[in-house]
Design brief:
This protein has one domain. The N and C termini lie far apart (36 Å). The protein is built from nine helices and no strands. Helices cover 59% and strands 0% of the residues. α3 packs antiparallel against α7 and α4 packs across α6.
Length: 147
Amino acid sequence: MKEKSTDELNKQLEKMSPEKLDSYYKKNSEYMINGENAFNYYVKDVLERKNIQLKDVYLAADMTESYAGQIIRMEKHTKNRDTILKLCIAGHFLLDEINRALKLYGMTELYAKDPRDACIIVAVNNRIYELHKIDEILKKQGLRCLM
């Protein structure tokens, strides 16, 4: 079954009356987010908007398709914030998109007062999405690398 995009669902809602919401929820329940799948849907929506394939994200993040797929689908939970950061950066997420993804996953957002986070923020704001380049910036500042 083909997954419906957020844009497709938004079009359905454009001229819908409140009385038809029950029908909408029933017809589209499998596409609605809840605490368990919000991260998964969000990541896929962002990548779809950017026209980036998941397999390219896995490759750029230097993760196996199996492991990264389980993380994104939340079948396997990681406590390693860097794993989520690497997936987001490899997916060319903007800062607000990274912070939303981290929050949906249950992790703290990037924090400007944290020196390591500040380096990552600057890299992302400068559209540096190659993890090895971000690691060079981190290394130069004497901070722990992502990879």
